[in-house]
Amino acid sequence: MRADVDGAFRILNLMKQQRILPNSYTLTSLMSACLSAKKVMKAKLLLNDDKLFQLLEYRLTTRDKIALYGAYSIGLCQLHNQPVSYTHLTLPTNREV
């Protein structure tokens, strides 16, 4: 099954226009779709969308950001057929946040 990345970004833009803010599940799903479709530049655009992150700043927790960057890292490893170890992707404890 091929991910419709362009369609997913159109929906994200519609959400922004309607002031519906995506959550971390939306963003990590979009990130995974980008990398599954081998659209690395689209994935990078998602990470560097300053306007989106300004809108989301009050909603994205440290854990959300870790999940998003984790999805990006794992997707890149899978693109290059590198073994992926999930043991190093630990979430901060409440004391660290």
Task: Explain what you see.
The chain contains five helices and no strands. It has 97 residues and is mostly helical. α2 runs parallel beside α5 and α3 runs antiparallel to α5. The termini are far apart. It is globular, with a radius of gyration of 14 Å. The protein has helices spanning 5-17, 24-36, 40-47, 50-56, 62-79.
Oligomerization:
single chain
Number of strands: 0
Q: Beta fraction of the residues? A: under 5%
- Mean pLDDT, nearest integer? 76
Tell me the major beta sheet. none
Report the order of strands and helices: HHHHH
- Structural class of the secondary structure composition? mainly alpha
Low-confidence stretches: none
Our Rg estimate from Cα atoms comes to 14 Å
Q: How many individual helices?
A: 5
* Apparent shape: globular
Kindly state the percentage of residues in helix: 55-70%
> What is the distance, rounded to the nearest whole angstrom, between the alpha carbons of the first and last residues?
38 Å
Produce a short descriptive summary:
By secondary structure, this protein is mostly helical. The protein has 5 helices and no strands.
Features:
97 residues, globular, 61% helix, mainly alpha, 5 helices
Q: How are the SSEs ordered, and which strands pair?
A:
Elements: H1 5-17, H2 24-36, H3 40-47, H4 50-56, H5 62-79
Helix pairs in contact: 2-3, 2-5, 3-5
